[in-house]
Amino acid sequence: MIELLRSKKFEIYKIQPKTTLTFSEMMECYRKVLMTFVFAVGPLQLFSYPIIEWVGIRTSLPLPSASEVFWQLVVYFVVEDYANYWLHRMLHHYKWGYDKIHSVHHEYVAPISFAAPYAHWAEIIILGLASFLGPLLVPCHMFTFLLWFVLRQIEAIETHSGYEFPWSPSKYIPFYGGAIYHDYHHFVGESCHSNFASVFTYCDYIYGTDKGFRYQKEVFEKRREKLRMEEKVNGSAPLFKSE
To answer: SS3 for 243?
Structure first.
């Protein structure tokens, strides 16, 4: 909605303001995502139910305490982030994996929230394994299980929003990547060797795969306020651009 409004109030927070999509392009993205959910995600959820019972995810009362839910969610985010990092990196490392599978998700150089689940059905299954790994290692109540996937989707939507607001989670959660972090990954595309992690930044830092992003951020962070001031006169300017 913000993207379609083209509001100057929000435009200054858009990471790649020169790249915009029309309403029809957004609806086409939404249509393809819906098809993927109907023919890939839906059947996967049906077939995974016996596995959910087998790993020990319970549905009976009582409900888990708030502290139990909190710490299980922390574990799930950390485990998923680590597993997703290596699976995502693998899809970039092997040309076949990128060309045949991951390139679909990278069709959007400047991502939008609709594009968060926009991917090849095989990628949804591959990266879905990372999301399921936490509950597999630390079984929980169905309430926590569903909450985990809701929060993970909200995080993915925020990460692909294409906007960095003053209230973005990256400003308050330590080691959280956020929209600007993942936007750089989409901006570089196939040749990107940086920012593979899905949620946090620690894996990229530890394994040295955030150097390109850190360099670009250091350079353009100095120009950001200047660019946003110039936007009022000359129009929006991107945070990332090829030199």
So the answer is: coil
